[in-house]
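Quick one: structure for this chain?
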Amino acid sequence: MENAIAWIFIFPLFGSVFVALSRYVNIKLAYPISVLSMAGAFWAGVETLCQAMASPNHEISYLLGGWTLDLFPRGVGIEFRADLLASLIALIVLGVGLIVTVYSKIHVEKETPNKEAIYYSLMLLQITGLAGICLTGDAFNLYVLIEVAALTGYGLIAIGSNRAAAATFNYLILGTIGASLYLLGVGYLYIKTGTLNMVGIREVIEANGLADSATMQVAFVLIGVGILIKMAFFPFHAWLPNAYCNAPTTTSCLLAPLVTKVMIYVMIRMVLTVFGVEFSFESTIWVSWMPWLVVIAIICAAFLALSQREIKRMLAYLIVAEVGYMVGGVWIYNYYGLIGSIFHIISDACMTLCLFLGAGIILHKCKTTHFDGIRGLFSKMPLTMIGFFVGGFSIIGLPPTCGFFSKWYLITGGMVSGRWEYLVVLMFSTMVMVILFFRLIERIHLAVDESGKNLGKGHGDLGLSREQTRFDEAPLIMLIPLLVAAATVIVIGIYNQEVVNQIETFLQAYDLPTGVEYK
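Got it. Here's what it folds into:
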């Protein structure tokens, strides 16, 4: 399909308009219009990836307004550029969006009654913004799309309870600071290079020898810190736990797998495409101290997760730890580390989706996600628990889930680059995750309380009535998306080499070290 990139935006963008208008016709039309819009966008995303894979240079471009790429640097006008990296991450965004949209019906009707049209309209705009972030080739347009995603995210969180509104305010303050720093950095880039096209900026840096320019160094720091704030890198994570835990269930299911991962993609895009490998890794000091900040971030997030007694809050801190994984994979400056980072963006989106979909079902059935209220769920909802723990085992890194293979590349990158502190902290956090999820299994499957006291009357007795353990599985409209997400985690793991091949093809142009010992 020609212009598949454009259709990625047309489907959800126009879908959001029709959804908003549905409140004046029949509010029940909001859900089916949203599902159809996301199905169309996902189809366009698949087409875009196939076209990028088939292209001789493994990328396709779409310029708004009929502009061309003939002029230096990189033509005039806003370019949407789908190389293999952008296409892969955009497809993950659209796939997660489709699954969450299908899953959302019961939660949205229950948690935001009579607001379905507003909610789904914001949701489609959120996905449009996130997909646009992945595919834009213009640094200022990227800022605009970051703000589109942020503003709709604020609305999707605040539309819930009063506590959600308070959490949104914290998110808004930190998000605004991060976006402002990014925009200021882009301003410095434009002053020095005279272009906003991402590839064009790098061409000017290389052609004019700007690697040692103080202006470029300041721009790099401003953009880098802004992105770290937006991705909730520790200690800029304060907005994330409350926002994801107090938001409506569907909102947390959509934002948790995507927002931080898309911002890590932005960091990789800035490092490789905008500033270039030589400038980012050899002309700045980030490669020296960022791995140590990653170590601190992962350790602190792991201990914070250990202290939680509520599933969604525990998962929120695990997201902060996973952000550290991916940031570390970039800044150990190694070919395998970057493969691991990119692969882990894909893996973490899928396994976080599993976990939050499962947590949403638990909340729907048990009215709580506190550890004290989940006893007996293996008997009551076995399929839901299977889907949930597939995501959990993937975060731990058990084969054949995708989490095992992405962690494998991250660990390999740490070994060959000699960053043993990063390697050790990966192993440490993996052990913490083993404790967390096996503690959950213990609380669900065994009759013990927080202190270890046996609540049952013997082996196999959960201390619950027959009614409390009676089979009562989730509605199919919620269960099927969870099982599809769990199957995706396993399928990506089994066919991991196909994904890695595309990542390797993308990285071939950057001549990254494969076995350089850090000095």
